[in-house]
Structure formats: structure tokens, C-alpha cells
Design brief:
The protein is α+β, with helices and mostly antiparallel strands. The protein has a domain at about 25-70. It is built from 2 helices and 3 strands; from the N terminus they run αββαβ. The chain has helices spanning about 15-20, 50-60; strands at about 30-35, 40-45, 65-70. The protein has a 3-stranded antiparallel sheet, with helices on one face. β1 (about 30-35) and β2 (about 40-45) form a beta hairpin. The longest helix has 11 residues, at about 50-60. The N and C termini lie far apart (about 35 Å).
Amino acid sequence: MAKTKPTIANLDPELDSIQDSLSDDLSSNTYMFMNRKRNLQVYVDADGWDEAHDKFDTCQFQNPNDWEMYLKVKQRSN
């Protein structure tokens, strides 16, 4: 079954391109796990949010609430 891209009504074209790059349908996205208390960044490649979250859990970081997760956006508007 084909997946469809989620849409947001009244979205301007610049934000539409960002939405395209955030889609879980894309593969090989780069995620960054950041711990600001320890000034530590860990980069992983994952095929969507679920896989990135699984990899984060696999790392078994102490104090997981100290960590933030970011997605690298493939296209920027500036």
C-alpha cells in the first residue's frame, strides 16, 4: 500500500518544501541526539522517526530526559 504525504492547509511554498523533507517516507535521514548538560552530540542515520527513536533507546543513555533529538533538514530556504 502506497504511503501518502501528510498535508497542512494554507502552507506557503517555502514551508511546503520543509514539510517534504521531514516526511517519514524519506530514507537515510540524519538525526542528532544532543545532551546540553554534557555538551555531547551523537549522530545516527535512520529511516524515519521510529527507527531513530529505537536507536536512541538502544544507546541506553543515562538520564534520557537530558537528551534532545533533532532531524537534519535536507533543503533550507536561505
